[in-house]
Amino acid sequence: MHVVIIASANHPLREPFAGGLESLTWQLARGLSQRGVEVTLFAGPDSDPMLEARELRITPLELSDTARADVNMPPERWLAEHHAYLQVMLELQHRDDVDVIHNNSLHYLPIALGATASAPMLTTLHTPPTPWLEPAIRLMDQSRARFVAVSQHTAAQWRHVAEADVILNGVDVQRWVPGPGGEDLVWFGRVVPEKAPHEAMQIAAASGRRIVLAGPAPDRSYFEGAVRPLLGPGAEYAGHLGVADLVRLVGSSAATLVTPAWDEPYGLVAAESLACGTPVLAYRRGGLPEFVTPGSGVLVEGGDVLAAAQQVEQATSLDRATCREHAVSHCSAERMIDAYLDAYAAGITIPERAA
């Protein structure tokens, strides 16, 4: 089987990962290759050269001075992303060696031009409906397309335009390994308003526990205005860490706080935490209740800092071995890759090719 994976063009697939989407796509490409699948990966520049899949770099955007002078010139980053996906889809029009295209991006162009490729397309829905992607799916020919959502919650959000199977995201339980635990709480992910790390810091302070934060901070105004003022003896920012350092940090923590200010489609950090044996205290939002279950975590209503603080001791008392076992059974990358291989096979007929 030959699978083309279309990744996000905004960030490279390399550690330290920009976010869960990049981590997940890296894991998928690597895992499929290890299963003997031929993988062609379209990804952002400077992606991990050690990926077993072949990476195809996208030609940089070139514009004449006349084009740049157009009064309707959109932001160059937006235009570069648009043309990156256009180049990918134009190439796929002429490829007769591809069995399935796995669209793992968040862009509308692969959807809009999917019918021009000879191979069928499977699209993973990682987000709620967006004003660009929703019309593209509504208008496309879905007879040669399949959709997968990362949670039942996300599948329900898209049901008005497409029916999607559900494949929960997975983590590499051979890399995210159990740790000894500790006294401090931890929060990790992108330090942005929709992830609300400042609320995790408030929860920790109200519970009397110290907390360590880790992750990229792309929104500097949010970091300076909402996060930095809460740093001090009881709250530390460890920076943007690679997987090995994150595993050590999470594995040596008492519990992970997951505090989204929106309905997380899945919540990969919770699965990563459980793989380390570290219990989860999370807001009951989005896809999190589908895999953060009693015995592995505690859920409270979104935004209720006081209720969360009152549940910290309950969360930290959960059995770490049970958390790890739950992650291996329900959140592993092996389970996810099995499910995607089944989805590929169900939607395609692999032709016999000449040697």
TrEMBL record:
Q: Name one GO molecular function term.
A: glycosyltransferase activity
* Top EC class of this enzyme: transferase
The catalytic activity of this protein is classed by the Enzyme Commission as 2.4.-.-
Domain (Glycosyl transferase family): give its ranges.
Answer: 185-318
The keyword Glycosyltransferase appears for this protein: yes
Domain Glycosyltransferase subfamily 4-like N-terminal, which positions?
19-175
InterPro entries this protein is in? Answer: Glyco_trans_1, Glyco_trans_4-like_N
What domain of life does the UniProt record list for this protein's source? Bacteria
* Key word Transferase present: yes
Pfam families documented for this protein: Glyco_transf_4, Glycos_transf_1
Could you tell me the keywords of this UniProt record? Glycosyltransferase, Transferase
Q: What is the designated name of this protein? A: Glycosyltransferase
From which organism does this entry originate? Answer: Ornithinimicrobium cryptoxanthini
